[in-house]
Amino acid sequence: IQVRRTANLWRAGSRGADLRQITFMSAEDGAVAQFEPTQDGSVIFTGTREGGRTLWFVDRDGSDPRPITQRSRIAANPMYRAGGRIVFMLADDNLRNHLWGADVDGGNATQLTQGQGEFLLDVSPDGNTALFVPHTTLDTLWSVSTRGGRPVSLGRTHRLSAMFSPDGSRVFHLVPTGGPDSRDLVSTIISSSGRGPVVTPKL
Fold first, then answer.
1. Neighbours of 108 (CB within 10 A)
2. Cβ proximity of 9 and 45 under 8 Å
3. How far is CA 157 from CA 77, 118, 171, 176, 177, in A?
4. Distance (Å, rounded) from C-alpha 115 to C-alpha 97?
5. Contact present, 175 and 154 (Cβ < 8 Å)
6. Spatial contact of 58 and 65, defined as CB atoms under 8 Å apart
7. For the range 136-143, what are the long-range contacts, defined as Cβ-Cβ under 8 Å and sequence gap of 24 or more?
8. How far is Cα of residue 43 from the mean position of the Cα atoms in its chain?
9. Considering all CA atoms of the chain, what is the largest pairwise distance in Å, rounded to the nearest integer?
10. Per-residue pLDDT of the chain (203 residues; tens, 9 = 90+)
11. Which residues have C-beta within 8 Å of that of residue 196, sequence separation ≥ 6?
12. Cα(70)–Cα(72) distance, integer angstroms
């Protein structure tokens, strides 16, 4: 038995009118997995083609689809913020994910992390800063500029719990009170710079 899944993106008005298909991945290619709409209505998405998970860009009307990453690499988890850059994970030759930043059309691509593999958690509302955890130490939270630069340690965290506040000035995450696998967690709010007071609200 052989099973193939096909999934494509469609666009519609707020009331379901003007329904239009904008991606055309075939059964042989695979399916659209993750997508992010941009400020002008174009869409960034991941799709499988020729054995690789590729990051794609397509105009709002479905015209001119083009790959942002090479088909031989595995791309995942694209994030876009209005006025900023796209941030995504891209696997190296050893299948270790690293954070990359690029312009919306894929230009000026920059590798942002250089460790043993990292997982992207969130991008600030202005698109300038990304939160991540290293695969080797999931209990440590880091931030890095989406233009490149030295990552900043923000302290202990609980795996994949971190996110920016709506204005980007603070980060909410869970902090274990015991060892790395402790189930006793404290809700914590810190400055996005890693400096300043720590707040532990009661939820």
1. 10
2. yes
3. 20, 14, 11, 7, 10
4. 9
5. no
6. yes
7. 138/180, 139/176, 139/180, 141/171, 141/173, 142/118, 143/171, 143/192, 143/194
8. 14
9. 58
10. 666 667 888 888 877 788 888 888 765 566 788 899 888 888 999 887 666 788 988 888 888 888 888 877 889 999 998 877 899 999 988 889 999 999 887 888 999 999 999 999 999 999 999 999 999 888 899 999 999 999 999 988 887 889 999 999 999 998 888 765 667 888 889 899 877 667 776 65
11. 190
12. 5
CB-based burial, 110-124: b 16+ in 10 Å, e otherwise: eebbeeebbbbbbbb
Burial status of residue 69 (CB atoms within 10 A of its CB: 0-12, 13-18, 19 or more)? buried
- Six-digit token pair at 175? 């902090």
Instruction: For residue 56, give the nearest of 48, 66, 64 by alpha carbon.
Output: 66
Residue 122 tokens read as 């969130």
> What tokens were used for 12?
């519609």
| CA-to-CA dists, residue 72 to 57, 78, 97, angstroms | 17, 17, 14
Question: In what side-by-side order are the strands of the sheet with 86-91?
Answer: 75-80, 86-91, 97-102, 110-111
CA-to-CA separations, 70 to 84, 109, 131, in angstroms, rounded: 22, 12, 24
